[in-house]
Amino acid sequence: MSVYFVAQYVVNDPALYGEYAQGAGPTVAAHGGEVICFDVAAETMEGNPPGAQTVIIKFESADKAKEWYNSEGYQAVVGKRLAATEGFAVLSQAMNAGG
């Protein structure tokens, strides 16, 4: 079942975020991920999100997404995103009705 890594945030340090993006991109492809959404001005329909920047990455499974997130390559750069942004990230399964 497909799973989506969804991150939404505000970028407080564009230079540091740029360094993160350059390093993170190749790690996604190396783990079978596909960036399906990168929107710096997402429109809020409800609630109070931390920021308008939204990224959605599709993986074939939660195991693959976690393999990517915990990989040596991604862990080498994720600290830059965490330092440069304020927001959240979640894994969401396609059509997960609970249980």
Compose a concise summary of this entry.
The chain is of the alpha+beta class. It has helices at about 15-30, 60-70, 70-85; strands at about 5-10, 35-40, 55-60, 85-95.
Give the SSE map:
Layout (H helix, E strand, L loop, with lengths): L2 E9 L2 H17 L3 E6 L13 E7 L2 H8 L2 H13 E9 L6
Antiparallel strand pairs: 1-3, 1-4, 2-3
Helix pairs in contact: 1-3
Write up what this structure looks like:
This protein is of the alpha+beta class. The protein has a single domain (3-93), classed as Alpha-Beta Plaits (2-Layer Sandwich), CATH 3.30.70.100. The protein is built from 3 helices and 4 strands; from the N terminus they run βαββααβ. The chain has helices at 14-30, 62-69, 72-84, and strands at 3-11, 34-39, 53-59, 85-93. α1 runs antiparallel to α3 (72-84). It is globular and about 35 Å long. The model has no long low-confidence stretch (mean pLDDT 94).
Q: What is the CA-CA span between the terminal residues? A: 15 Å
Top-tier CATH class: Alpha Beta
Q: What fold name stands as the CATH topology?
A: Alpha-Beta Plaits
CATH architecture: 2-Layer Sandwich
Helix and strand composition category: alpha+beta
Strand content: 25-35%
Identify the strand order in the major beta sheet.
Answer: 2-3-1-4
Q: Given the structure, what is the number of helices? A: 3
Helix content: 25-40%
Mean pLDDT: 94
Radius of gyration: 13 Å
The string of secondary-structure elements, in order, is EHEEHHE
Beta strands, count: 4
State the domain count: 1
